Amino acid sequence: MAASAPRLLLLPLLATGCFYPSDRGRLLEQNVERLRAENEALRKELLETRSLVDAQLPRLDEKVAQVNKATEELKKASRQSGADVALDLQKTKEEVTALNGRLEAVEFQGRALETSLKAVQSEQQRQLEALKGDQARAEAEAKRRAEELSRPTDKRQLLQLAQDKLKAKELPAARQLLTEWLKKWPRDELAADAHQALGVSYAEDGKCREALFEFSKVIQDHPRSAAAPDALLRSSTCFTEVGMADESRLALEELVASYPKSAAASQAKVRLEALNKKKGKGKK
After folding, report:
1. Of the candidates 272, 270, 227, 277, which has an alpha carbon nearest to the alpha carbon of residue 245?
2. Average pLDDT, the chain
3. How far apart are CA 88 and CA 82, in angstroms?
4. Residues 6+ apart with CB under 8 A from 231
5. Where does residue 185 rank: exposed (0-12), middle (13-18), buried (19+ CB within 10 A)?
């Protein structure tokens, strides 16, 4: 009976579940906590997976609808009769044939135009070469005659000979002599007359740009020479010839302002009056 007393005393403790070795208790608690954590992780993973599935379902439904639609179209196409297919094919061939025909017509017209253009260009080139050839031969002949001329050694006499050739309309010969003169005496007091005569030879030959260069040499380098007023007047004419109306008027105005008593200034005034009248009529 004495031995059974301790066992009786243990019964209440066992009944309440409070009796367990402390180490094994802690280990059990740790295992339970770990299982809880793993269970929570699995639960979160399951929720995420469900969310992904829910997000993909509309896309899957759309793909299924597309597949169904494509299947229906294939079925519809397969039900089309062979005659309909042949008819569509024939229409396509006819359209392609018509397009090819129009393309060939356009290409033919293009080749014809290209041939005509080449013919015109060839003729223009031939005429231009012929013109250049005639002009080159004439200038070469004039230069040859100028080289055969007996040249005086005196600068005044040589300048007079060049001016005589200019008056006789022997323009290439006059230019040859004037060019030689300016090479020998470029800074001489008579250089203004030589540049002026050379400019006149170019202007009368229809070479206004070359003429303007010579006239500018007179105006800039020899403004007090007797040739300066006439150089301005002739510059105005050349500016008009090359379509520079404003510069033409400025040359006349400069002539009247700088050389008011010259004969050239009188002509300039007449031209300016005509320009002003023309301008007044244009405003009306």
Report:
1. 272
2. 80
3. 10
4. 195, 196, 199, 215, 216, 218, 219
5. middle
